[in-house]
Amino acid sequence: MEGFIAIYIFILAGFVGYEVISKVPVILHTPLMSGSNFVHGIVLVGAMVVLGQAEGFTEQLVGFIAVVLAAGNAVGGYVVTERMLEMFKSSKGDK
Amino acid sequence: MNLFVEIFYLAAAVLFILGLKQMASPVTARRGIVWAGIGMVLATLITFAHPHVNTNYLLIIIGIAVGGGIAWKTGKEVAMTDMPQMIALYNGMGGGAAAAIAAVELIKQHEMDSTVQLLAVFGALIGSVAFSGSLIAFGKLQGIKQLRGAFRFKNQQRINAGLFIVVAWMGLGIATSGTDYGMFTLFLFFALALAFGVMMTLPIGGADMPVVISLYNAFTGLAVGFEGYVLDNPAMMIAGIVVGSAGTLLTQLMAKAMNRPITNVLFSNFGETTGEAQEVSGSMKAIEAPDAAIMMAFAEKVIIIPGYGMAVAQAQHKIWEMTKQLQERGVTVKFAIHPVAGRMPGHMNVLLAEAGVPYDIIYDLDEINEEFRTADVALVIGANDVVNPIARTDPNSPIYGMPILNADYAKNVIVVKRGQGAGFSGIENHLFFADNCRMLYGDGQAVANELISNMKEL
């Protein structure tokens, strides 16, 4: 990728992350940390790409570890975040 | 890259950002995580069609099944009180995955652009630290005996600094040597990076763990973003950096809530204060459950201050039952949550939500602190340091300057507590000796039960 485009992406994504979080109420901090933890589970995609072109035992082994760990990050992050957010209810009786 | 794959990755990145944005409000938060989840599924599925994925399909599927399966099971079963350490664990796995990606790329020793190589190594370093550090954080919060408390020895900061310099130097060497680095050097680099994560986390005490977990969450995000650049994968770059910056902000917010600069947490000095602590005057005065029940039942406004002790005693369901009783009698009941109540900011809200307490009677520090003056009763259950007025008055106290809930301004204060000892931090709580404060001794859940039955009889 062209170096400068990458810098644009990095900087703009940095602003987006800052903006999105800065308005979150304290009551949601734990689910939110968990939710952002889930989002970096996208590392699974990278782990798949790496394992999908790995040759030889060492590369395959390390690539496989990457996929297992990344899948744990993504799935675990989703399950616990969803469980927490599901419980937040208002007294006005919306579901 | 294949256009089709690109479009899916773009969609995933957009869904992640929109999902996180929705999580900013309790009303839409649930939808937010579902959207982000859809993004993840799309990105994962389309990766099978990625032009670089040509082999090892079976291994990929087995890997996803194994990692995902274990995480699914543990995630479904974990108790809400244990949530912080599970988040640490899943986060550490992500950091480990990022480091492993870098490892494979570096093992191949293929020609890389120098920027790519530098970011690969840098991502490997912070990913490894996030991995091993998160495992230690998990162990500490899980209460594994050998890891509990702050683990310190002489010259620790110097040894850690030395280790860091060695790791950074080796990393720089690998990053700038083209394809000339040896496999043993590479192995040693990863081993030392992992060791550094352990060493960095060991001296930090359990109370500071939330800040550390949040910091490692940001680390993992950055590592994922950098490895995304290495793999030329914009979805990873965007998602990783968004989490990296969001996590950094969240870490700052938490450290601020605890009145502890991040540097102070990492190079901890907790409790090392000079000078004499203020003497406590007065004595603790006990109250029995029937009297406490009367006091609350005939009050106009009761503010409940729950702390982690309440969750440990599993008393939140009973407290909610008691709250409903009071509400039926026309008492206004509000919950006041300190930013660091529980093991993590917002953790207490999760625990109350689990018990069924609606979020619109739960208030945070800034919203409720003025209201204590008009409250008839402040019921403190399982909280200690966060209501200690010494934080306002005694510059020699280690918690001086920490924002506290002004429970002492209420007309009456009832403190539910197991025994007479000092709190988590070992600091004497002056509130307990105040004239308007009464101690209700006993296990949180048992006390709540007694209060409920006494109220029913009124």
Describe this entry's structure for a reader:
The complex is a heterodimer of chains A (95) and B (458). With 95 residues, chain A is mostly helical. Chain A has a domain at 26-87. Chain A contains 4 helices and no strands. Chain A has helices spanning 3-22, 29-39, 43-51, 56-87. In chain A, α2 runs antiparallel to α4 (56-87) and α3 (43-51) runs antiparallel to α4 (56-87). The N and C termini of chain A lie far apart (46 Å). The model of chain A has no long low-confidence stretch (mean pLDDT 89). By secondary structure, chain B is an alpha/beta fold. Chain B has a 6-stranded parallel beta sheet. Mean pLDDT of chain B is 90; it is low at 270-274. The chains are: A mainly alpha (95), B alpha/beta (458). At the A-B interface, α1, α2, α3 and α4 of A face α1, α2, α3, α4 and α8 of B. Chain B: The transhydrogenation between NADH and NADP is coupled to respiration and ATP hydrolysis and functions as a proton pump across the membrane. Chain B: It is found in: Cell inner membrane. Chain B: It is a multi-pass membrane protein. Chain B: Residues 6-453 form the NADP transhydrogenase beta-like domain.
Descriptive keywords:
heterodimer, A: 95 residues, 4 helices, B: 458 residues, 17 helices, 6 strands, transmembrane (chain B), membrane (chain B), NADP binding (chain B)
Q: Biggest sheet of chain B, strands in spatial order?
A: 3-2-1-4-5-6
Number of strands of chain B: 6
What's the average pLDDT of chain B?
A: 90
Distance between the ends of chain B: 73 Å
SSE-based structural type of chain A = mainly alpha
Helix residue percentage of chain B: 55-70%
Strand content of chain A: under 5%
Shape of chain A: flat
